[in-house]
Amino acid sequence: MASPAIGDLAPEFETTTDTGATVRLADFRGKRVVLYFYPKDDTPGCTTQACGFRDNYPLIEEKNAVVLGVSPDGQKSHQKFRTKFDLPFTLLVDEDHAIAEAYGVWGEKSMYGKTYMGVTRSHFVIDEQGRIADAQVKVSPAESVERALQALG
Question: What's the rounded mean pLDDT across residues 126-142?
Fold first, then answer.
């Protein structure tokens, strides 16, 4: 499935957070959302990306935005990751990768000659009306943060 393009309505979802709460994308209407997808909790690139959003979070909040991190890891893994790095934003559980599929960032990857299915590191900035304002697919951890900040203005 292709990723949504700028101007498209962001695919709606409902899932569990790292705290066990249920959350829907629609809960954030009226705010901008940086929805970022990462492959795995507590791995080097994912930690770089998460800590980049953490370090810039006051600036992101000033721009009427929130950050939501999404990976296929479960609630306990997300809790550990969030606590270990003092992340001020919510992590979303996507164990069935339905959210990643809806955003076109679940697919075949390869490492060391082995092929497997996984998340492509990416982010989407969603405006106050729920439309895609920026889409960055296959982005490096550091560039993801920089580009999201640029998109927020």
Answer: 95
Question: Residue 94 — φ and ψ, nearest 5°?
Answer: -135, 55
Q: Rounded distance, CA 46 to CA 30, Å?
A: 28
Average pLDDT, the chain: 95
pLDDT digits over 21-39, tens only? 999 999 999 999 999 999 9
The active-site residue out of 33, 34, 46, 105 is: 46
pLDDT digits (tens, 9 = 90+) for 81-95: 999 999 999 999 999
CATH top-level class of 14-152:
alpha beta
Amino acid at 133: A
For the chain, give the DSSP string.
-PPPPTTSBPPP-EEEBTTS-EEEGGGGTTSEEEEEE-S-TTSHHHHHHHHHHHHTHHHHHHTTEEEEEEES--HHHHHHHHHHTT--SEEEE-TT-HHHHHTT-EEEEEETTEEEEEEPPEEEEE-TTSBEEEEEES--HHHHHHHHHHHH-
> Distance between CA 125 and CA 6 in Å, rounded?
9
Residue 51 among the catalytic residues: no
